[in-house]
């Protein structure tokens, strides 16, 4: 539980930084960033396994068998970011490529935190 809360807070910080430095990401403050990070966390918990499975089936498992399963996970995470964009009025990403870049940044930040703390 503590690890999940820490990830939500760190994801909120990453979202704020992304909104500051990426012109195609809009976010209206830290409270909104926490809410969006929570939405992304919940959607990721509920939907990422389904989206990843569907993408693996759609690609006939090519990325999975080539050891590039992270590609389907990043695309699934980008779809979740797009869903969070639709749910929250205070968060906006312009274009799917922006969501992919944001997904990669969030994944790298999460992996870094896990490597350092857990």
Automatic annotation (TrEMBL):
<keyword id="KW-0812">Transmembrane</keyword>
<dbReference type="InterPro" id="IPR007165">
    <property type="entry name" value="Phage_holin_4_2"/>
</dbReference>
<keyword id="KW-0472">Membrane</keyword>
<feature type="transmembrane region" description="Helical">
    <location>
        <begin position="93"/>
        <end position="117"/>
    </location>
</feature>
<keyword id="KW-1133">Transmembrane helix</keyword>
<feature type="transmembrane region" description="Helical">
    <location>
        <begin position="57"/>
        <end position="81"/>
    </location>
</feature>
<protein>
    <submittedName>
        <fullName>Putative membrane protein</fullName>
    </submittedName>
</protein>
<feature type="transmembrane region" description="Helical">
    <location>
        <begin position="6"/>
        <end position="22"/>
    </location>
</feature>
<dbReference type="Pfam" id="PF04020">
    <property type="entry name" value="Phage_holin_4_2"/>
</dbReference>
<feature type="transmembrane region" description="Helical">
    <location>
        <begin position="34"/>
        <end position="51"/>
    </location>
</feature>
């Amino acid at each position: 539980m503590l690890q999940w809360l820490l990830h939500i807070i760190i994801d909120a910080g990453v979202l704020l930084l992304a909104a500051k430095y990426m012109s195609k990401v809009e976010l209206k403050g830290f409270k909104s960033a926490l809410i969006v990070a929570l939405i992304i966390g919940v959607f990721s918990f509920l939907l990422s396994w389904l989206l990843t499975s569907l993408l693996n089936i759609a690609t006939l498992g090519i990325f999975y068998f080539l050891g590039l399963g992270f590609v389907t996970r990043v695309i699934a995470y980008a779809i979740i970011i797009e869903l969070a964009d639709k749910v929250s009025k205070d968060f906006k990403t312009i274009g799917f490529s922006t969501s992919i870049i944001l997904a990669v940044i969030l994944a790298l930040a999460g992996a870094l935190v896990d490597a350092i703390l857990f």
